[in-house]
Design goal:
8 helices, mainly alpha, elongated, 0% strand
């Protein structure tokens, strides 16, 4: 007869966020670089509305020079492309590095388990759980962190731009 261990409360709720944060602490410099790239990319994206507003105002005043604004748009788009590509590359690299390190740690822990435990749980269950958990961590790094930071920056930046253009209209 198999004896099942009681499930801890944090396991019932889908995991332990504190353990995730503790595990990510060794990557804080890389995560800071990723966050910096996301912030710079988001701020650069906020320049497009200002550039369009300047072009519309210049057209209304009759001082619009197409070449000037085309070059500004191309330069801004190029900078955003380079920063966004760097961000994507770096987040993918970081997520793969974290996944590799997690797999190594998990393999080491599994190698210390008893034969009885491995037979009771089953290799298919272990592999499925390890794969899904590592993939979830990779998703947080490649999508979760950038989305959270860019959303906050875009909201704050949009509010700032609205107030800088016309504070009465922004209210």
């Amino acid at each position: 007869m198999k004896v099942k261990k009681p499930i801890k409360e944090e396991q019932k709720q889908g995991g332990n966020f504190g353990a995730f944060i503790k595990e990510m602490a060794s990557y804080k410099k890389q995560i800071a670089v990723l966050c910096l790239l996301v912030v710079v990319s988001s701020i650069m994206n906020l320049f497009f509305p200002k550039l369009v507003a300047g072009a519309i105002d210049a057209f209304g005043r009759g001082t619009f020079q197409l070449n000037d604004y085309v070059w500004q748009f191309v330069l801004l788009a190029g900078v955003i492309f380079l920063i966004s590509t760097s961000q994507t590359y770096f987040s993918t690299y970081l997520s793969e590095k974290v996944a590799f390190d997690l797999r190594e740690k998990l393999a080491l822990k599994l190698s210390r388990q008893t034969y009885k435990f491995l037979n009771e749980v089953g290799t298919e269950t272990l592999l499925t759980n390890i794969t899904s958990d590592v993939d979830a961590v990779k998703t947080v790094i490649t999508q979760g962190i950038p989305i959270i930071f860019s959303s906050v920056i875009l909201i704050i930046g949009s509010i700032f731009i609205m107030f800088s253009i016309n504070w009465q209209l922004a209210l």
